[in-house]
Design a protein that fits this description.
homotetramer, alpha+beta, 5-stranded antiparallel sheet, 24% helix, elongated
């Protein structure tokens, strides 16, 4: 049996500043929403509102090495948004995180995406993810 | 007796994208947070999650004519933020909205500010705030 | 012989607001830089500073349907950035645009990416790219 | 005779991401433009493209303590923007910077504003502006 990765959901409202002159949410906002999904994942999994900030406190960082997004439908100001986030792969020195962004009221899929990350120490060197952090990512 | 304007509070987490190379939240993010406070005010007062979007649906807009902010203390990634928003003045064709941004965990004041707005119709002309909207602003 | 697509370069300075608490430019800023590269492509190819805005004036839009980026090295405040942009594919109803972001002073590659687009009319329907615009994209 | 402070101008194009659903540039973008004007001031006055980054290299920072803006007319995608920036006051531990944002093609004033700053050292303490930096600000 394959383990199903634990997903975390976070909901928020579209910010007016995130819209553009086409009247819809600008595509770059979803990249920030992915990050907010990632933050929510860490907050919920660590049961601590500082979440990923705790990892940075220890001098480790997940730098972003890649991002991809596919836009399916538009979001507008007045919409409530749900980001579903799960860690789809963990490697010695990095991880892949997946996202599904939808409209809370209609359930419609808006955007799917992934980010890839490497673990850096405070000198900016790529290092293995510390064991206690890797354990959390895999749980 | 002077009426105390009704304030609405909304809480959210600092987004990593909102931080800057000083390690703190960039001052422009607070301007977006003011707007999010304003959005929350409309959502709560109208008891409808679309809030201010309903006013735009009717062809009226509150354009921003001025903004001011005074920064008192820094916010960081990992902090939870509270924006307290109230309408401090309503005029025939506009309004002034006030904001108090604080750290939820410590209660510390981070930033105070105001925005001024004029009411525009869909042709971009300054017009009187429609009566039923003015009533909501004053309630 | 295969035609080499014409590339357009645009240079600008990192904005402080684009940095994050890691001290480097936030990954979402590159998505905005891609768009700025795309804008520069249209401005230069149309020899008109309004560029792509002219296409919107005619009621056509290139909505973003996908984005991908691979981050190779970090940019910092104080760096001057070059975005090289070319249209790597044109289809009846859409196009793919490619980007190479580098550091002007060192020539170092910072980021590579692509965006995909469909052509919409003013009602939001996917339509064929108008012939005179397709001709410009292919030139 | 009173000295007229030296102003620096920088021009750039509106980014699509800076527009909002009203079809105009979002008011928070001007706060980022003010900062870009400030960056341009330092780059030109120091005759070094790293500009203000050189001050941060020495461990000094100008934290923003206040911002105000008055919006006069809207900017749109396709507009070229000019930010005129000058240092309107220098104090022992801080400064005030003023901005005038206009449309390059028409010369129309779009926005006026000011930011206030205090000088911090690398520990985040408010300190006197180092003499050689104060001299540059006053020149």
């Amino acid at each position: 049996m394959e383990a199903v990765p634990l997903a975390v959901e976070t909901d928020f409202d579209v910010r007016y500043a995130e819209t553009d002159a086409m009247g819809i949410v600008h595509h770059s906002a979803y990249i920030v929403w992915f990050e907010e999904g990632r933050s929510a994942w860490f907050r919920e999994r660590l049961a601590d509102h500082r979440g990923y900030a705790l990892m940075e406190d220890e001098g480790y960082f997940f730098a972003v090495t890649g991002v991809s997004a596919r836009y399916v439908a538009a979001a507008r100001y007045g919409d409530r948004i749900r980001v579903r986030t799960w860690i789809s792969a963990v490697r010695s020195r990095g991880m892949t995180v997946s996202y599904r962004v939808s409209n809370v009221a209609t359930g419609q899929l808006l955007c799917k995406g992934q980010t890839t990350h490497v673990c850096l120490d405070q000198h900016g060197h790529v290092v293995a993810i510390p064991v206690h952090w890797a354990a959390k990512l895999l749980s």
